[in-house]
Amino acid sequence: MLADPSDIALAAAFAALTLFALVRNRVGVPVPVAIYVPYLWAFFLVFTLSELVAPAAGIWVLAVLSFLALREYFTLADLRIQDRWGMLAAYLAIPFMFWFIQIDWYGMFIVSIPVYAFLVVPFVVTLGREVEGTVLSIGLIDLGLFLLVYCIGHIGYLAFYATWMAVLLVLMVTACDLSSYVFRARDRAPLRSAAYQLLAPAPVTVALGLALMPWTGIPWHHSVVLALLIPALVAMGCQTIDRIEADLGIRRDRLVPGRGQVLNSLKSFLYAAPVAFHYLRYVLEAF
Fold this sequence. Notes:
The chain is mainly alpha-helical. 79% of the residues lie in helices and 0% in strands. The chain has 13 helices and no strands. The radius of gyration is 19 Å and the shape is globular.
């Protein structure tokens, strides 16, 4: 029995990315790109396991990535000692949400964080004795939970239904990131940078959408709309997280695991993932 060409292509892409991740420090890859590669590799590990093994295998790899991002965020945020119970509740929300993805319970997935976790976390935070700082702590914990667990979880749900749709999303976001990195190295003018982030990646994202149509199954006009939408969403996510990073004291020249590396590498996906998921779900009515 012949192997599915899409499976072969995905396995080949994962193998190539694995090789690149192993040799990136030896071939003179720029530091920002070298830092980004392991997290891109993690996404392709999710897709490869989902396609070749079982959707659940890939989903829980993504759950681990969300946990690492949330832990890094909590390490950097100005939280009180008594907020550890609220942080614990946030950590427990990760398997709570990803379990609903695994069993394909969309209704519970969509409200798991914005309703149930957002009600439990404030209650747990208020169990501490100290009153001052309660509002700030609740906001910090809920924001991290929403962005780094709930938004990233949409990539897992998209991969659960159609792995290649999730692959397309990640490739489009990566194209935007690489385009933005190239421009920042040449020009620091804010207005030109903003225009570049919106316009420059569009030809590449459109080409990706059209080239992967046989595997994604997305009609050409929706592929084009998604390709034009992604750069704007990436720019919004980067702008938001850049401000959060600045407030948390994260320095781009000192990005290491636990000190902003995970957060910085995932920021481009935080707006793009949920909007792309719901756009495809609405227009295709496939899931």
